[in-house]
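Weekly puzzle thread! Below is a chain. First person to post its structure in token form gets bragging rights.
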Amino acid sequence: MPPPVETAITGENIALDILHEDDQLIVMNKPTGMVVHPAPGNREATLVNALIAHCGDTLSGIGGEKRPGIVHRLDKDTSGVMVAAKTDAAHVSLSAQFAAHGRDGRMQRSYQALVWGTPLPRLGKVDASLARAPHNGRKMAVSTHEGARHAVTHYQVRESFLDGQVTRLACHLETGRTHQIRVHMAHIGHPVLGDPLYGAGMKSRASHLDDTATAALEALARQALHAAILGFEHPATGARMDFEAPLPADMARLLATLESA
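Winning reply:
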């Protein structure tokens, strides 16, 4: 394993919603609108900038210059629980757990999503490999191409609203591909509300919402997806660690309007 590369990324004094911190790792509730690590167009105000300022030299270096401490990621506009490693040993352990995606019983990841329509069956699985969309590098797509990566999402209907026009799902990842839940839900005809990439063509459905729900959806201005639960085995002690983050205010407001409709 190569030695850590000294990062050129500067720390920024950005407040973190910390759920747990010890000498091995830090668990946070990532807000919407925050990019995880610097990239073209998003060089500042990322989670990595905040972590460098908060943790200093304690972050692991295995991720390389651009991703110190980062063992997994959430999309910019997806909120919820994330963990970062503060030692190389923790980085190795957590990375292995994420790679197994719960198949060895150590990792649990559960998302809350609001989707258009009501999936059937109400407890189901989407097993469809993913690859970069051929004509849009920003998007992923279901693919049978040889280079496509295996992807499986399990979902469960929690409650439906407006005679089944909108549904709240719990989604559990068996794999962790880019945009996986968003692509899989769109693939089965139930895209995530507010999704700018995979929810095209949903204007006709949105027109059936009442004024209050329409205003809440417009205020959301992002995909209604939240990483609610993250559970894993502590890298040093082996103890079970489980964390849950409440829905952010914008998504909670939309859900409340749907429940009262």
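Puzzle host: Confirmed. Bonus trivia for everyone else. Residues 93 and 223 are 31 Å apart (CA to CA).
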